[in-house]
Automatic annotation (TrEMBL):
This is ERBB-3 binding protein 1. SUPFAM superfamilies: Creatinase/aminopeptidase (SSF55920), Winged helix' DNA-binding domain (SSF46785). Residues 183-245 are annotated as: Disordered. It comes from the Eukaryota. The gene is EBP1_0. Residues 208-222 have a biased composition (Basic residues).
Length: 245
């Protein structure tokens, strides 16, 4: 995803195809059902969506990227078949209110919990542990059954399969992609390499990362080391492809 369009990743379809191609080069599968969304104020699942895996069950409208847009990039890859399964609904503890749905709840416990959710968590996802415990378990079921809440279930791959998950927020700026959130990544040595020039070009892109703090730069004292650039170093395709965004 690059606002300069220097490598032809101009649309959500282009990014989906690129994700698939890179994963295949490293003998991995992209996990189905994981979406990357455009972000707006108070909206974490905007209209522009990037599919990780195209499928007949999950379709999105074609969309072109534009400067000054913001996206939450969410990618999960697996050494298995990429089709994790729900084993136990009771493991689900994260939910988000579906603001476009309405229903007259029958149970008193459900109405109480939904009112609490509407007051405390009207937009963003929340943990069931943050609710009044005694009524939560009973009331959440009716809310979910009538689509008032969107559950974030815990899914499982087969035993022995390895799963890697990366998620970050990126700004599409006029001078390139600017990654503003993420975490430290493990440096791993893959068993596969690729000589595909297109994949090498993607992996060499890197992203800029925002520095902490702000304001005017302080003058360095004598003997101080020069400040390191915030721009990510280009990555060689023979190193860990999964650890670079």
């Amino acid at each position: 995803m690059d606002s300069s369009s220097s490598v032809g990743l101009d649309s959500n379809k282009d990014v989906t195809e690129a994700i698939q191609k890179v994963a295949a080069a490293y003998d991995c599968k992209i996990v189905e059902g994981v979406l990357s969304h455009q972000l707006k104020q108070f909206v974490i699942d905007g209209n522009k969506v990037v599919l990780s895996v195209p499928s007949p069950e999950t379709r999105v409208e074609d969309a072109e990227f534009e400067e000054n847009e913001v996206y939450a990039v969410d990618i999960v890859t697996s050494t298995g078949d990429g089709k994790p399964r729900l084993l136990d609904e009771k493991q689900t503890t994260i939910y988000k209110r579906a603001v476009d749905k309405s229903y007259h709840l029958k149970m008193k416990a459900s109405r109480f919990i939904f009112s609490e959710i509407s007051q405390k968590f009207p937009i963003m996802p929340f943990s069931a542990r943050a609710l009044e415990e005694k009524r939560a378990r009973l009331g959440l079921v009716e809310c979910v059954n009538h689509d008032l809440l969107q559950p974030y279930p815990v899914l499982h791959e087969k035993p022995g399969d390895y799963v890697a998950h990366i998620k970050f927020t990126v700004l599409l700026m006029p001078n390139g992609s600017d990654r503003i959130t993420s975490h430290s990544l493990q440096e791993l040595q893959p068993t596969k390499t690729t000589d595909d020039p297109e994949i090498k070009a993607w992996l060499a892109l890197g992203t800029k990362t925002k520095k902490k703090g702000g304001g005017k730069k302080k003058k360095g004292k004598k003997g101080d080391k020069p400040e390191e650039s915030a721009e990510a170093e280009p990555m060689d395709a023979t190193t860990n492809g999964a650890s670079q965004e």
